[in-house]
Amino acid sequence: MKNYLFLLSVICVLGFLVKPVHGQVSPGQAALNPAAVPQFIDALPHFAGIRVDATLGGNLIIRYEPTTQIAVSTGTVLATGTVGAASPKVGMTRYWGYSISKDGINFTPSHWPAFTVVARRGQPLNVTYENKLDGETYASVNLTADQTLHWADPLMNMTMPMTPYTGPIPVSPHLHGGEVASESDGGPDSWFTPGYAITGPSWKVGVDQNYSYLNTQEEATLWYHDHGLGVTRLNVYAGLAGFYFLRGPQEEADKLPGWSGDDLVQEVVPVGKTGPFNPNPYPPEIEVVFQDRMFDTNGGLYFPNLPTNPMVHPYWTPEFIGNIITVNGKTWPYLSVAPRKYRFRLLNGSNARFYEMDFNGPSSGKIAPTITQIGTDGGLLDAPVVIAGKLLMAPGERADVVIDFSKSAPGAVWTLQNSAKVPYPNGTAPKPSTVGQLMQFIVSGKMVSAANPAIAGVDKSLVPASLRATPLVKLVNYATGTPTITPAVKRQLTLNEVMGMGGPLEVLVNNSKWDMNGMMVDGLGETELPTEGTTELWQIINTTADAHPMHLHLVQFQLVSRQPYNVNSYLKTYAAAFPGGTIGTPPVTYLPGVYMPAYGPPLPYNTPNLDGAVGGNPAVIPFLQGKPRVANLNEQGWKDTFIAYPGEVTTFAIRFAPTDIPATTPATSALFAFDPSLGPGYVWHCHIIDHEDNEMMRPYKVIAQPRPAAVSVMLKNATLSSPANPGFELFQNSPNPVTTNTDIRFTLGTDCHVELVLFNSMGAKIKTLINADAPAGDHLVTLYSDNLPSGVYIYQLKAGSFVESKKLVVLK
Known about the structure:
Blueprint: H1 2-18, E1 52-54, E2 58-70, E3 92-102, E4 105-111, E5 114-120, E6 125-131, E7 173-176, E8 210-213, E9 220-226, H2 232-237, E10 241-247, H3 249-254, E11 266-268, E12 285-293, E13 324-327, E14 330-331, E15 334-337, E16 341-348, E17 355-359, E18 370-376, E19 379-386, E20 391-393, E21 398-404, E22 413-418, E23 437-443, E24 447-449, E25 476-477, E26 482-483, E27 489-499, E28 504-509, E29 535-542, E30 548-552, E31 557-564, H4 567-576, E32 581-583, E33 588-590, E34 641-644, E35 648-655, E36 682-686, H5 689-692, E37 697-700, H6 709-716, E38 729-730, E39 741-748, E40 752-760, E41 765-774, E42 777-784, E43 791-799, E44 802-810
Parallel strand pairs: 1-5, 2-6, 5-10, 12-16, 15-23, 27-29
Antiparallel strand pairs: 2-3, 3-4, 6-8, 7-9, 9-10, 11-24, 12-13, 13-14, 16-21, 17-20, 17-22, 18-19, 18-21, 22-23, 25-26, 27-28, 29-35, 30-34, 30-36, 31-35, 32-33, 36-37, 38-39, 39-42, 40-41, 40-43, 43-44
């Protein structure tokens, strides 16, 4: 360890000689004072009424594009009236966004956040992603890619230069929370540059620009964002994020406030301004993404260059914390509301900032609006939870909430406040006049009777006491904080901060770098190898001083408990387990019993410790203190991102299977609608994206349950477009999901023999629907689901040389 510290001290001394530039990033930039940005004078931009309707499935084209919008225009970035500009172009914010095309309808211009995509459970959606950032560099949006990180690096510059990167922009689209095959997951190595000229290593194992979203999972609030290796923090900061609503029958049955067909008998009389992205000032359902940002005095993006160890990573800041709040890409907006309930889909899309949200009162004695949470990352809760204190959201988390303004008189003004410290939870409190405020709600409309518009009405909408017709599948007894099923594997994994002379050099999961210190070659080197259908118990041992939102791709999981442990005592035992030796470049020699940063776990990974846990770390149970804390009421559901607090062991039950399959289902039958072992695999990481960009991420691979080879191919290709057989086509069944019956249509180009067969997800033939000669033309077959249990099925059409398969879902 002394040798390592000596090396760092030499590096820091050399830093005084080289003098890298810090503070501003782009020449001539000056940071905009947050006090120069007026608050609550522009309406909240949103997409109600102009979302991308993909509820019938089909095909989308989503393009990465550069764009510039004037901030003084309604619905864009800086607030009207922002002062302190250095030029007449104040508010000219250049960024990158997504534009979308669906069946000839173009959702342009590209926007930050992106247009919301609305999909439906059981209706597969194919998305082609195009990188249209031709000629762009990171300097185009005032950002700097640090080439000393392990990152996408299209130019493959093995010298890891200390200068800013100036080459083409690598991107990798990820549907966060999506239950998708790994070829369509948008992992960090699935990146591509404009025109697919240069591609990441995942393209060698099945990835291309065409993504298949099967939408088989339970309805939920998902979001899509860029996930390029080592540049996620930059690409998302530049504007590359948007919502993805997955709707479904449970949600419809509830008639929640905001759902089309809810049981509101009143309507709102619109009062107030509208804008290009705010056509209706009183939509009952609104998506809201909170992101902190900084801007320069010209209104451009500003990302300060504040490296803690500039001679190691000259442009990497451990955690970006902005001084201006944007909501749906607008600084400190307001939203006009009527005295009724609204459904809000909330997302923390910030790099590193946590939010603790509540309302202040307009005056003493007033009753603040209530926030009731109805859903988490993975879908609806069993029952609504009234947030008694503050709603906490970490980066990457979503909260599906209903806010009730029905007790507010017209003219009431409510400010949504933020009290979360940075870093969370023990850092600096937010400044109340700036980042301590998020947005305002102004009660400026009124309710009228739908039957008689001349008569004033009241809000009669209800939040159902039970939100789900089918209760949540539970892996946890939330009352006791214990798992309800026996895990196949127990893992104990650490979170580690590697310190340099000036601060963090990197943050790691299980003391391991992304590529396991160079051992990973073409997808090898994963240490987490769960088997499909099984449940594992993961215990995250946070040895750092901060909270980390931990996220797994592919799966939703459930919180078992959080429990403090004696950090100092555990770290002594942990350090004593390291064997000593020489590692790193340049090489550093460590004595036995001294912590070896980025070495990996100190013990053999797959040898169980005294707690019966793999992971290569000393047993943690002897160091636990106090009693375990069970999940908060609003955490008692499926989530893909959970907070792991400092000084605590956080325990998750993770089942590598769809969330709606009963917990008693044998692992051999709890299968995804695709083979999860195919392709490049998945990742788990911290969703503080500055951390994941610098090594706080690891790959993992799922071992699939046995499937007949032919059916595996069917599952993989179940949603691809029809092959190029002129005149032949198999259509997606409708309706889908199936409750009673569904129609399967197909077209034959010539007379031929036809077989139409239904398989279950294991590949077993369920029934033959057709086995006969048929004439050319259009055909329809009706399938009745009376004797079919809920689940995923594949129907396959063979007609001459034409063979195609599609997937249907039975829900009862």
